Input
Amino acid sequence: MDVKQKKSSLPPNYYQGTLQLRRPTEEIVVFVERAFAKERRKNPDVFVSKVTKHTSGLDLYVTSNRFLRTLVTRLEKEFGGRVKLSPRLFSKDRQTGKELHRLTALFEPFEFLAGDVINAFGHNYLVAHAGRRVSCVDLSTGKRTSFEGKVFDHRRSYEVLGRHTTTITMLFPAIEVLDPADFQSVRLQNQEYLINQGRKLTVDQTVTVVKKDGLWAV
Output
């Protein structure tokens, strides 16, 4: 993370707020670096004065609360995740009496990405897009749906399901596949979803499934 100040009128250790990145991916870190680099070209008084590393992520000390609010909104929109803004009274301006606040902005991305399968609200969903809104395909019906990202703020509200590769063992009277756990032939829970994908299905064909109250094709 580049924290160098470029022709700023502010002291190098000055900051107004803190961006707490928890479990950031490399893509998120690069996104933040580029956002600061772009803003600094317009306003040299916007920069990161210090970075503290933690086992769970990074703390970035930022010189502008206004830019910090904008950045965390962009992170939520681009990647999806939990956002928490915590302003704290720091001091008062001696001349104007205006209250000055330190802002702590937390961003923690969801534990799922586009392409993952999650179980939430009693359904299994294939995630198409994770951002401020999370777009999914219901594996039961094949229909698209979306949710406000904030409904996934609590980790216990969803479960990321592991993918397994298996093979089709039977097509009629119902599609069955090998259970990766015990290698028993079991009925696929969402047969219509698999059929509606338009692929020609054959015995011994490889398919990807998730396991949650049965096997579901992805």
